[in-house]
Design goal:
The N and C termini lie far apart (156 Å). The protein has eleven helices and 13 strands. The chain is an alpha+beta fold and 462 residues long. It is rod-shaped.
């Protein structure tokens, strides 16, 4: 048998080998060759099928991962509370989230490939159309635009716009995220209110501590004044009794003939003038001591160490008493114009009403300190269920920017050292405690007008 050369083909080699097999016919040799070919084909088909199965498994795994990624992205988009819009580089919408669909009442399918400006009000379209021009160069932060809702109403949004890139760095478009400004403003408003409330509470705590300290001081002063006032009262009442006895004795002497020397001594000592003055001096001293006693009682009442009980009192008397308190200390006496309702009896705490009136009248006098002509108008107006007490000055009035702050603690328009800014603040609090009110405004005829409203609970009008 001849061996195949090195340049022989496999088929030739096979033929040679088969031809060299003894005892096989040509048909048998051909059949054996066909079987070997089919076996080779089947082996190749098995390999290809195995590759297909492996590729199918990989494809299914990638599809599962892709579906999970899509579900994750969908869940994130659905959970967003802000508006999300994805656009291409020409400003055409490619994707939106559920918040935008709800806000505009338009399904996502109707928005895809539509221009971005379609969603916004006319006044915001020019700004929105400029977004694509800024892609790749700068981001837009908190740009205020107005979007149209279901009813065509304008919804202000704080819009952020940033560029979107392919993995290879190629610019694809932009992503816009907008938050309704109403929510931001509401949050800022609530934060500001909480901050103001905290500051107000802090000021009230400081004020309460100051007033408590002042109350303790005043109570101590009032207590110390009580003892000398008691001595003055006792001595003056005793002196009044002595005056009667002395007058009786001198009158008895007058009925008898006096010696020349006694008459001269009486004239020299001015006994007659003294007797004429002593009654008015005693009455004046008793009146002054009585006034000091009232002041001490008021100080003790205002100190907070004792709670004044509500009682019936005459309002006109309270107004006159407050006027007397203030005007007695005035260097220049202002002209007082009173228009008081007749005999209105109010049920409440007289000391509190007195304190408010003193503060209002004192403020009216203070603002006219440098004026030549000073006038205070006090008017009471009786309504069905309340009484109004109006105190008007003829000063320059309250500046518009200061008007909302006149009842704030420690706010004052007076010069440094001339006011604490607590009088109106305390007066306003007392008025509210009485279920009343205290307001301030500028009078059309000039000057400031303060109105104290007192409810007529338990009121009796004579």
């Amino acid at each position: 048998m001849t061996l195949p050369s090195s340049h022989s083909s496999p088929s030739e080699t096979g033929k040679d080998s088969l031809s060299g097999q003894a005892g096989l016919t040509d048909a048998e040799q051909q059949e054996q060759i066909s079987e070997e070919v089919w076996i080779d084909v089947i082996h190749k088909m098995d390999a290809v099928y195995a590759d297909l199965v492996h590729s199918q498994v990989e494809l299914e795994e990638k599809n599962i991962a892709l579906e999970e990624a899509q579900q994750f992205i969908s869940s994130v988009l659905s959970s967003m509370t802000d508006v999300l819009i994805v656009c291409d580089i020409k400003g055409r919408i490619q994707q939106v989230n559920r918040v935008l669909e709800t806000l505009t009442c338009r399904p996502k399918e109707s928005l895809i490939h539509q221009p971005l400006s379609l969603l916004f009000a006319e006044e915001s379209k020019f700004l929105v159309d400029s977004f694509p021009d800024k892609l790749g160069s700068e981001s837009i932060i908190d740009c205020e635009v107005k979007m149209l809702d279901c009813n065509g109403q304008q919804i202000p949004l704080a819009m952020n716009c940033s560029s979107r890139y392919e993995h290879d760095g190629r610019l694809l478009g932009m992503v816009l995220i907008g938050r309704p400004l109403g929510e931001l403003r509401k949050a800022y408003s609530e934060l500001a209110q909480a901050h103001d409330k905290l500051k107000q509470t802090q000021l009230q705590l400081v004020q309460s501590e100051k007033m408590a300290s002042l109350g303790r001081l005043v109570a101590g002063v009032a207590h110390e004044l009580n003892n000398p006032i008691s001595f003055v009262f006792g001595n003056m009442h005793a002196l009044a009794r002595y005056e009667k006895n002395i007058s009786t004795y001198i009158q008895a002497i007058d009925e008898k003939e006096q010696s020349q020397s006694l008459q001269e001594l009486r004239k020299e000592l001015k006994i007659d003038r003294i007797m004429n003055d002593i009654v008015s001096l005693i009455d004046g001293t008793l009146e002054g001591a009585e006034r000091v006693k009232e002041i001490v009682q008021d100080l003790r009442r205002y100190s907070g160490n004792q709670k004044e009980t509500a009682s019936q009192f005459d309002l006109s008397n309270a107004v006159n008493t407050a006027l007397e308190w203030v005007t007695k200390a005035c260097r220049i006496k202002p002209r007082i114009n009173l228009q008081l309702a007749e005999q209105v009896s109010v049920f409440g705490r007289k000391g509190q009403v007195h304190q408010i009136l003193v503060n209002l009248i004192q403020n009216a006098v203070d603002v006219m300190e440098n004026q030549e002509h000073q006038q205070v108008n006090i008017t009471t107006i009786k309504l069905d269920d309340s009484i109004l007490i109006q105190v008007q000055d003829r000063g320059p009035g309250i500046p518009d920017q200061a008007l909302p702050k006149v009842f704030d603690p420690f706010f004052t328009t007076k010069d440094v050292g001339k006011g604490t800014g607590l009088g109106l603040y305390i007066s306003y609090g007392i008025a509210k405690d009485m279920d009343g009110d205290l307001t301030a405004q500028n009078h059309p005829d000039g000057g400031a007008l303060f109105t104290l409203t007192i409810p007529l609970k338990g009121e009796q009008t004579e």
